[in-house]
Write a structure and sequence with these properties.
Layout: H1 2-20, E1 26-37, H2 40-43, E2 47-55, E3 62-78, E4 81-99, E5 102-121, E6 124-145, E7 149-157, E8 162-173
Antiparallel strand pairs: 1-2, 1-8, 2-3, 3-4, 4-5, 5-6, 6-7, 7-8
Length: 175
C-alpha cells in the first residue's frame, strides 16, 4: 500500500513541476528598522538590523516564505541600569497578493531574544545576560516595486517583546 501511494505522489509530482517552473524563486536582503511596543518599549529603544527572506511562489498570488532576521535594539538607560537587547528571528509563512504587487504576509516561528543588563551601584558594575526562546507571530503588509524592491511593515508579536518593523529589501530573482 505504501509503495502504491509513493508511486501516485511521484507521478503527480511530474505534472506539478512544469506548472511551477514558470514561477521563479526570490531571495531578498535588506535592512530592518524596528520600534518596540508594549513591555519591550520600557527596556529598549529604536532597533536596527537586517533580514534575509527566501520565497518560492506556488501560485500567482500565493508564496511560501522563510525568513531570518537579526535586530539590535539600542541601549535603554533606567537610573543606574542599562539594557541592551538583540533578537535573532526565524520565521516561515505565506505571502498573499490580493492585488498585483500589494501583499499581506503572515509568518510564525521562533524569537531567540537576548538581553544584557548592566547595573552600576557605587561603581560596582554587575552584568546579567538573559536568553529567551519564544514563539513569534508576524503580520504585515507590503508592496513589491517591479520585483526588484520589497517595502513592508510588519507587526511582530512575541510574548512581551513586541515590535514593529519597516523592511526595505532588494530582491534577487533566480531564473
Amino acid at each position: 500500500m505504501r509503495s502504491i501511494l509513493l508511486m501516485i505522489i511521484f507521478t503527480f509530482s511530474f505534472f506539478a513541476v512544469p506548472a511551477l517552473a514558470q514561477l521563479n524563486p526570490v531571495l531578498s536582503v535588506g535592512p530592518l528598522f524596528s520600534v518596540p511596543v508594549g513591555d519591550l518599549d520600557e527596556n529598549a529603544d529604536f532597533g536596527i538590523g537586517g533580514g534575509l527572506r527566501f520565497e518560492y511562489p506556488v501560485l500567482d498570488n500565493l508564496t511560501p516564505t522563510l525568513s531570518l532576521d537579526y535586530i539590535h535594539f539600542s541601549e535603554a538607560k533606567l537610573y543606574q541600569t542599562s539594557v541592551t537587547n538583540n533578537a535573532f528571528i526565524a520565521l516561515a509563512g505565506l505571502k498573499f497578493f490580493p492585488i498585483k504587487k500589494l501583499y499581506v504576509l503572515g509568518q510564525a516561528g521562533v524569537n531567540l531574544f537576548n538581553s544584557k543588563v548592566e547595573t552600576d551601584i557605587f561603581n560596582i558594575i554587575t552584568t546579567t545576560t538573559l536568553k529567551k526562546n519564544k514563539f513569534i507571530g508576524s503580520l504585515g503588509v507590503g508592496y513589491e516595486v517591479a520585483r526588484i524592491f520589497d517595502l513592508g511593515v510588519h507587526y511582530n508579536l512575541s510574548d512581551k517583546a513586541n515590535f514593529i518593523n519597516l523592511r526595505i529589501a532588494y530582491m534577487f530573482n533566480f531564473k
